[in-house]
C-alpha cells in the first residue's frame, strides 16, 4: 500500500464571518480535505498523519476582540474543522505583536497559550514557541 505523509491545504481569508459563523473559505477547505482523503483511499494510499497549521489572530487584535470571545470562537472553529476534516493534530502558531500598538495582541496571545493548556481534548493542539519551547494542547 502507498503511504502519504502530508496533505496540505491553503486556507486564506477569515475562518469566521462577522456573525461568528464558519466562512465559505473554511467550509471549502473542509470539503477539499475530505475530497483528498477520499481520492487517496480510493487509489490505495494510506494517510499516516493528518494535521493542520493554524496561524490567525492579528485581525482579532486589530479589532480589540475580547480574549474570552477569541478563545471561545477559536476553540470551537478549530475543533469543528479538525472533526469535519478528519485531522488529528493542530499546530497553532501564536501571533506576534510587532505592530504600532503591540498591547492589542497580548490578549490574543494569552488566549492562544490558554488554548494549548486545556486538557481533556481528543485532538492534540500544539503551540510551537520559536524561542525553543513547544506547548502541547490536549492530547
Question: Would you write up a description of this structure?
Answer:
- This protein is an alpha/beta fold and 139 residues long.
- Helices cover 40% and strands 19% of the residues.
- The protein has four helices and six strands.
- The chain has a four-stranded mixed sheet with strand order 3-4-5-6, with helices on one face.
- Helix 3 packs across helix 4.
- The longest helix is centred in the first third of the chain and has 19 residues, at 24-42.
- The protein is elongated, with a radius of gyration of 16 Å.
- The two termini are 28 Å apart.
Write out key terms for the chains shown:
139 residues, 4-stranded mixed beta sheet, single chain
Short description:
By secondary structure, this protein is of the alpha/beta class. Helix content is 40%, strand content 19%. The two termini are 28 Å apart.
What's the gyration radius in Å? 16 Å
Terminal Cα separation, in Å?
28 Å
Could you state the oligomeric state of the chains shown? single chain
**Low-confidence blocks of residues:** 119-123, 130-139
The major sheet is characterized as: 4 strands, mixed
Count of distinct strands: 6
Strand order of the largest sheet: 3-4-5-6
Coarse structural class: alpha/beta
Percentage of residues in DSSP E strands: 15-25%
**Helix/strand order, N-terminal first:** EHEEHHEHEE
Number of helices: 4
Bulk shape: elongated
The average pLDDT is 76
**Helix content, binned percent:** 25-40%
